[in-house]
Structures are given as structure tokens and as C-alpha cells.
Amino acid sequence: MKRSTLVPAAAGAALLALTLASCAAPSDNGGGGGSVVSGGTFVKAISDDPGDLDPMKTVSPDTFDVVTIAYESLIYVTPDGGYEPWLAESWTDEGTSATFTLKDGITCADGSPFTGQTVADNLNYNADPANATFSYGTVITEAVSVTAEGNVVTVTSTVNDPFLAVNLGSIMMVCDAGLADIASLSDTTDGTGLFQLSEARPGDAYVFTKRDGYTWGPYGVTGDTEGLPDTIEARIVSDQSTVTNLLLSGELNTGVVTGPDQDRLEGAGIEYTGVRNPVGQILFNEREGRPFSDPLVREALSTAINRDEVGPVIAGATGLPSSGLVMKTPLLCVQDPPGWSLPATDLDRAADLLDEAGWTLGSDGIRQKNGQPLTVKFIYDAPTASHAPAAELVKETWDKLGVVTELSANDAAAWSDQLYTSFDWDTGWVQIAPGSPVVLDLFFGGATPDQGGLNFMFVDNPEYNALAAQAKTAAPDAACGLWQQAEKELIDRFDTFPVIDNILPNYMSGATFEQPNFLNPTSIRMQG
């Protein structure tokens, strides 16, 4: 079976973008070797209703799965972290300034022109903290201001940002009518995409229809490119066995399937693409008073885990050694192999570390300190089938050390409460999957939730913080090296323990496509 995985970009490759040349287009054949045919309906399964369709407020994967059909960005980031012109034909980046030159003839779904001023209005809207968009604070802040003259967009920033053009180039662009009436974006689409929403059936499906006159896709794709469908249907199918059955029957062209149903798809020779997923990442609650506030305890219980035993259970057939903490496109500053390593499994050393931390083994086989047992609450995602059995293996190992491990399966409400409100957790299968070290820093170096931030682990790593501060204002050719050193500090201090990654497989039946983070509709090639 052919497997398409993320191949991290070389360190520093993401930093300076002058005028970029086009790479090779995605193959028109694959996914079973059928001939390319144009027309028809491409049907993709999504697991839940997307709800509000405003692309600037989107947070859930199911909503991204839908809105990315209709909206485009200035730069297309390929699955391997490369860059292709999309709405912008070229761009420059000087750290505190950037320019984008738009392609000629871009129009919106309503036929109105998409101009440089439209881009400026989008970026300025996202840069305003009062608008609280998804992009604010992660790829754009109030330090950015934007003007336009004709097709040329000029960006200035009051702070140096070595990723300025790439970050801004990833923001989904809304057309003038949508910007003038933000509320309308909740149930309609107003973008430059090849496909635009033509029918919404909440709880059932969202249908997008190909429009005429499209000429500005990545790799030179136009509306006349062979193999494109006429319509795309995003159909809500929550049960994975049903998704599998529909893929096998050909009623679905794509859907994400994990767990035992993968065996049926592999047996039928159905291929997949997908994104790297930190399925085996362990995070720790380092809040004062919790066991893992002590780095010796974090090191001890991490060192005890047998990654060779636990990894295949949680990751399944698509398991991969972790190559870093940044794993979504644009894959900024990913170093493969990473500049850090994980310790070998060693139960004796783990026991010694716990002794050193003051957690001594009692006559009852339980470790205690100041008369209190060493009790940890291990949380995991209830819907993820592999999480529970992998958590059981970890518990069995920690039991041997005299640790009382309480396993707790979380639904969506429990995740929100424990990580951001009650803080009643200690460790578990908890994952962060950012596309840049700047976003990673919001979780490991930013404010804690009680101060309005995202650092739900209450990490305070002085060495990491110092390197991150340097990296944020470094010259482009130095930034990645500093961010990679900072990531190593997180690993060395056991602020996280990445047991294993895997590929979250998006299966392809009767069609092929590219999937950076979400499926690119211009890359779909229907097969006969």
C-alpha cells in the first residue's frame, strides 16, 4: 500500500521567501491506478456538523473540513512544507515587512473582483484583538498593519517576525461582501475558492458547486483541469464502521478511519493520505501541589514507559517515531531527525528517581511522601479506541513502581473542564499539534488559563523561555536554530514525553487528492 506522510522541511527552508517558483503538480493518477475522469460528485465524510461557517472563527476540525472547500489563502503550503503561489503570485519577507503581489483576474464567487485592498482589509481585521479571530495571537497580532495599491499588498510589523509572510499567507481570505457583513458568514460562504456552498443541510450534508472562470489554483490548476469534480458533498457520517462500508461500496470518496476497521480497508487495497498525529504524546500538569510539578517525578514515570510495547498499541499500523513537537503545515523549523533523544526504558532508574524525589516505597507496596500516597490521574480521549488499552499498559508499569494510577476517560466537556477550569488531572494522552514553534510557545511558554492563556500545563521552563524570547526577534537565518534548541529544553526537562506519532489516515476511494492539514479541493482528481 502506498502511504503518503509528512516529510519535514529542512531547517530554515521556511524563512526567506522571495519570488517562488512553482514545484511539480500533484500526480493525476494514483489511489488505485484508475484513469482520470472529470465531473461527478466527490463525497467526503465528516464526523460532525460544522456549525458556524465563519472561517475567521473556525476552531473545530469538522468546521475546517468544510470551510477550506470555499476559502483560499495567499500561499499554498504543500504537505511536505513547501510553498506554492495561490492568490499571491509572489511575495517578499524582511522580518518587519513583507509584500504580496496578487495574481491577475481573481474573482469572488459573486463575480466581484478580489483586490489587494480586500487582502489588506482581511489582514487588518484579523490583526485587531477586538475581533478575536482564530488567527489572532497565533499567526498575526496588532503589531501588523497592512496597506494596498492595486495588486500589491504591503505589510509592516512593529516587531520582527522571521515567519511573517508565511504566517499571513496562510490566513483564509474572505471577499468584500462577507467582510461587510460578518454575520452572514455563519451560514453562507464568500470566498475565492473553486467551489462555493450551494446547499446546506445541517445535520446531514453541505454541498459545494464548481464555479466558472477559475484560473488561479496552485500548480496552475484552473476550472478546466482534467479530473476535477463538478460538486463536492461534505456528508456527516459519525460511525466509523459506516464510513468504512461506504468507502468499500464507492459511495464515499474519502473518510478518516482509525481502529480495527482499517483492516478491512487495507484488505481491499484502499490507499490513504493523511497528516502526522501526536497520538502518543504525554503532557503533565505541573501546577504547584500536583505530583508532576517535580521534574524528578516526570523523568521517573517517563523513563519507566516501555515505548516499544505501548507505541504500537496506541498508534496502530501507521506508527512513526516522533520527529518533533511541530507537526502541521507549514512545518516551520522542523528538524528530522530531531536534535533531542528520549531515554531508554529503565525501571530501576525510575525507582531511584522517585526515591530521590522523596517518594519512598511503603510496606504496602505504595510510594508515599509525608504520609500521602503517590496518586496520579491519567486522562485520555474516550472516543479514540487505542487510548484506553495503551493507558492500561502504562498503568501496569507504574503499578510496579508503587504508583496509584487512576485512569479517566474524557469526553469533550471533560477535556475543557480539566485542562482549562478545574485543572484536575496529572498526565495522560494529551496532544498539541501546532504548525510552528510560535504557536507551540503559546502552550509551553505563554500565560496559564487562570490568566487567560493556553499554558494549561503550567510549564515554567526558564531555559526554554529565554531561547523562545531570542527566537521571536532573531534574524530569519538564526530563528530556527534557536527554536530547535528551545524544543530540546522541553524534552530534556520532561515537560512533554512524545511516546510515538502516527498518521491519521484519510482513505481515498475513486479519487486522489493532496492533504496538507485539510483536503485541498483543487487537488482532487476523480477516477473512472
Automatic annotation (TrEMBL):
This is ABC transporter substrate-binding protein. Belongs to the bacterial solute-binding protein 5 family. Keywords: Signal, Transport. Residues 83-445 form the Solute-binding protein family domain. It comes from the Bacteria. Pfam families: SBP_bac_5. InterPro entries: Peptide/Ni-bd, SBP_5, SBP_5_dom. The lineage of its organism: Bacteria, Bacillati, Actinomycetota, Actinomycetes, Micrococcales.
